[in-house]
Amino acid sequence: MTEHQDSNSTNETNDPDRRHSPEPPVAGDEIATLLGSLERQRATFAWKSGGLDPAGLRATVGVSSVTLGGLIKHLALVEDDYFSGRLFDRAPSPPWDTVDWDSDPDWEWRSAADDSPEELYTLWQNTVDRSRALVAEALADGGLDQLSRRVWPDGRAPSLRRILIDLIEEYARHVGHADLIRESVDGLVGEDPPR
Q: What's the pTM value of the predicted model, to 2 decimals?
């Protein structure tokens, strides 16, 4: 068993106190550290956005139009785009495959208000599950140095390592948004899900 597999199984499966609060290993290899950091961001986001009714998912803070429901749907789109689209150059999964992005570039943000909490949570969780499988496939096929099949406009192809870093940054930014919105909804505060 590799170090990154061992650290993930310890964090998520074997230690019941860590099941909902994964974190990167203290002195793990690069894969374990990157995946552990991403899983910590996902778990914190799930905690900050979880268990709310439609009104809670539609709440905003100040003049911002960002909602927790919009964040859930946006991060599902980003997960699909980064791993399925960018890494493997595959067509978008439903519901992204039928959206006219040219006429409605903020569709995921706007349409989230029409979705039930169950639809939003299921969409995000299913997309995260697909992303985990795609990352495992890429790691088995070429490791962190594997280049994406979809290139940037300037012709460069980012590595899986860079895609993981970009997604960690995306989650970290939006976990900050979720912190503020969630506190305004019901007062929930804290950095990590309870153990």
A: 0.86
